[in-house]
Amino acid sequence: MKRIPFTDGWQFREKVNPFAEIGGPGAPYEPVVIPHDASIGRPRDPRGEPAAAYFSGGAYQYRASFPTPADASQVVFEFEGVYRDAMVYINGDFAGQRPNGYAAFTVDAGPLLRPAGETNEILVEARAHRDSRWYTGAGIYRPVWLLTGSDVHIPSGGLRVSTPDVDALGAIVEVAVTVQNASSRVSTVDVEVTVESPSGDRIAGGIARVTTRPGARAIARQRLYVAEPALWSETAPALHTARVRLVGEGEREGDSIDEADAVFGIRRLQLDPVNGLRVNGEVVKLRGACVHHDNGLLGAATFAGAEERRVRLLKNAGFNAIRSSHNPLSSAMLDACDRLGMFVMDETFDVWTSAKSDFDYSLHFPEWWQRDIESMVTKDVNHPSVILYSIGNEIPETGSPVGGMLGRELAERVRELDPTRFVTNAVNGMLAVIDDVKRMAAERAGSADAGATAEEGAGINTLMAGPGDFMNLIGASPLVTEKTAESFGVLDVAGMNYLDARYESDRELFPNRVIVGTETFPTRIDHNWALVRENAHVIGDFTWTGWDYLGEVGIGRAQYLDAEHPAPSIAAPYPWIAAWCGDLDITGHRRPASYYREIVFGLRAEPYIAVVRPRDDDAVLYAGPWTWSDSISSWSWAGHEGELVTVEVYSDADEVELLLGGLSLGRAPAGPDHRFRAEFAVEYRPGELTAQAWRAGAKAETSTVRSAAGPARLSVTVEQSERSELAFLAVELVDASGTVVTDRAPAVTVDVDGSLALQAFGSADPMPTRPLGSTTQHLFDGRALAIVRTGNGDGTVTVTAPDYEPVTVRL
């Protein structure tokens, strides 16, 4: 079917009770462009939910008009994602629904359309309210497509390409095309398939004749041989294209009833406990990043350019794999992973039948899970980046026989739909036996009432906020071994959340078990990565998280305890907005943990300098399991001259030497035996701080940070590509040499003109004082990010701040 974007011409408002509109005008609609996050621009409520970043829930309506096409008998709307409980109406009549906020779905508009040439209205309602453990956003946050075609056509998702047989000489490319006949007569068509190489050359093709009954579907399956194909991998992500034409009997050459194409990759996947994961015969260890679906300052709105930027920056930071958490990735992000060579573990659900939030998806799971799995597989099947499907995250039911039975049903359904990938489940051992843990805690506390030992409001992260060793102690226990045996047994890969204590013991207990760390503490990457390297059956590690996210506020923050705040807490108070546990912050800037991880992975030889922010009090630091040190790579600390500051140097070298102004401050051991870090107490004075690596007694790599000096100025660096509808403008305060002035936070204003629109503006500050929708924001650590929607024309962006010269750039 012809597939065109349906993203312009929409209007939006908060949902209004229709009875309230009797006798007067209703709430006005305002124009919006899809994708659109209905929540991100709303005021936050200090009394709201920390999990949702203090954003309030709501119900929303979107409407748009479209003419009935005169040349198409089939009209279908395709929604890539509406959060959530979407209800769709055509000309006032119910047309379809989808409870899951992350599942792509289609709505057949044909039966409800007015005569050809007349105007129709589509109305979409969505709602979000206390239904998740993170910031979800709301509304039509992913793209919408309008599909039109004839009665005989290829339906949405009707072209699937797989490569079941690949070796050094050639590959079998299997192209399965679904032909749908919506007419009242038998139809016969020829299905013409052409396979093109990455350079666009025709390298294979074939024709199959297909006859379909009225109102039925048929699949035309062709096995095509491609000699010496370019294989897809993380280092050489070669992409092919399959093009399909439906040609009817008696059609002139060149004419077609319908067309479709799909981009795919040719690659071979193998999995076993002796070699681990192999791609095209080569062993691969997954250097993984868990990511949520939100895009920081953009909220939940899914723009292709922003998704590609995330993938590119994550790969530049040393990752080669992404785990979607805890819902299927967008098509745009999968496209980017295909192009850039990033492996994907796509995940279905955060809940099955056991609720984690008041009104979460457990209310709909029993009725909808099969259709949701089908939606995910249909979306993923042609993407070579997808190598693993995850059927859930930290599902409490995994510790029970009924949960094992349900997991088997999910896993087998995935395999029925796509037998070419592997199936996992992100199991948290402690959560799987949480009722037993509560009972044991009650007994330990001497309480006769086990239910009274857990706070009524305690969530799973509260229970996990203690030392990681405690979680491992529970997870490695015989109790977890027994209770998770069936749930792990239904999987191809045992996904383990915070269960690194099982990696080596399970090699003996379950010799055929292949393991992946589906979620791990960032502070344990040196320990975990050693286990991954040394154990063939452990295929990778996915840190929580690769990219920081909105909601679950402050779980990774450094907490300073004093008389006013004597005890740590899992959630941070308002105005916190971010989790603050990502290697990259919500603007995409790399934090110190990211460089540490790159060194642990063996991808960076140069040492890295991080300086702990100096404080003016005697508070005691509490670092939770997701907390990195409260540090940045800066040597600009005006007002702290003469004070001792802590300098961390990350390195895989034997030793590192620290020099200030060329004078040595001493050496300290580093490398794997010292957790890849050395620490120095340094009396702060402005200048140049250098880390010198020493290997086998000889000087090796160096890195340097400098104090910002002299007059400062605003700097704007534009990141824009032809593929993206967005331009990203990095706003920095720098000195004459380009050193970022991290110890000033002026208020900066962004103005746009022409055809441009300011989509978002803000900083990585995890506790901002200004609304995200404001055109004026304070810099954080000397930086901010403006995101501009470029449209179809040109315009200018002007950045101003008091006491600094304005900067204007043209896009």
Helix vs. strand class: alpha+beta
Helix content: 10-25%
Strand order of the largest sheet: 22-23-24-25-26-27-28-29
Q: Distance N terminus to C terminus?
A: 35 Å
Q: What overall form do the CA principal axes indicate? A: globular
Give me the count of strands: 47
* The CATH homologous superfamily of the largest domain: Glycosidases
Instruction: List the quaternary state of the chains.
Output: single chain
Chain-averaged pLDDT? 94
CATH architecture label of the largest domain: Alpha-Beta Barrel
Major sheet: size, sense and barrel closure? 8 strands, parallel, barrel
Number of domains: 4
Please give the radius of gyration in angstroms: 28 Å
Our count of helices gives 13
Strand content: 35-45%
If you consult CATH, what is the topology of the largest domain?
A: TIM Barrel
* Low-pLDDT stretches: 450-460
CATH class of the largest domain reads: Alpha Beta
Index terms:
811 residues; alpha+beta; Jelly Rolls; Immunoglobulin-like; TIM Barrel; 4 domains; 8-stranded parallel β-barrel; 47 strands; 15% helix; globular
